[in-house]
């Protein structure tokens, strides 16, 4: 009887784990890989499409909602620049509850002038991602370049689980 209960528990646990892995893969495919590409290509249309129309964006400089945020992205990404940026993500927590996900992690932004790396910065983020009409979209996005009053650093970024490269 105990063996049967243990086997039933393991089957349930593996089923939930498989579902979570599937949902995390879906989040990567629908949100994080396109986010990285749109950010690096400065494609404001693709970037804004990754966010809900009522998105709440909060950082150390303030907050913006919906259209105000998306207009700011369009303006920023449309400015001419000689710099190229890359962004990478690592995750501390990835919680998925059916059609809502809460993810906590770190990002690294590298800025290049030509082939020369001129700056690397790190930050921490918390996002709420919702699934509507079969698509995951960012509904709330908070980030900061400090954690507990100290600058976010490379060690914290590397200690978390990196977004798998495609």
Could you outline the blueprint of secondary structure elements for this entry?
Blueprint lengths: L1 H40 L2 H6 L1 E9 L2 E4 H13 L4 E15 L2 E14 L2 E17 L2 E10 L1 E2 L2 E2 L2 H6 L1 E2 L4
Parallel strand pairs: 1-6
Antiparallel strand pairs: 1-2, 3-4, 3-9, 4-5, 5-6, 7-8
Explain this structure:
With 166 residues, the chain is of the alpha+beta class. It has one domain: Nuclear Transport Factor 2, Chain: A (Roll), CATH 3.10.450. It contains four helices and nine strands; from the N terminus they run ααββαββββββαβ. It has helices spanning 2-41, 44-49, 66-78, 154-159; strands at 51-59, 62-65, 83-97, 100-113, 116-132, 135-144, 146-147, 150-151, 161-162. The strands form two sheets. A seven-stranded mixed beta sheet has the order 2-1-6-5-4-3-9. A two-stranded antiparallel sheet has the order 7-8.
How would you sum up this structure in a few lines?
Helices cover 39% and strands 45% of the residues. It has 166 residues and is an alpha+beta fold.
Task: Specify Rg, calculated over alpha carbons.
Answer: 18 Å
The CATH class designation is Alpha Beta
- What is the average of the pLDDT values? 89
Low-confidence stretches: 1-19
- CATH architecture annotation: Roll
Question: What keywords describe this structure?
Answer:
166 residues; alpha+beta; Nuclear Transport Factor 2, Chain: A; seven-stranded mixed beta sheet; 4 helices; 45% strand
């Amino acid at each position: 009887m105990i063996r049967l209960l243990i086997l039933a528990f393991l089957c349930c646990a593996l089923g939930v784990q498989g579902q979570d892995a599937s949902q995390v893969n879906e989040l990567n495919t629908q949100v994080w890989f396109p986010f990285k590409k749109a950010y690096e290509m400065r494609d404001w249309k693709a970037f804004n499409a990754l966010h809900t129309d009522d998105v709440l964006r909060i950082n150390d400089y303030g907050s913006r909602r919906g259209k105000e945020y998306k207009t700011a992205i369009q303006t920023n990404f449309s400015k001419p620049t000689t710099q190229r940026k890359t962004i990478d993500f690592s995750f501390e927590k990835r919680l998925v509850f059916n059609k809502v996900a809460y993810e906590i992690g770190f990002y690294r932004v590298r800025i290049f002038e030509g082939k020369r790396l001129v700056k690397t910065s790190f930050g921490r983020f918390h996002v709420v991602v919702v699934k509507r009409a079969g698509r995951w979209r960012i509904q709330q996005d908070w980030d900061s370049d400090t954690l507990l009053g100290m600058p976010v650093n490379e060690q914290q970024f590397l200690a978390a689980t990196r977004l798998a490269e495609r």
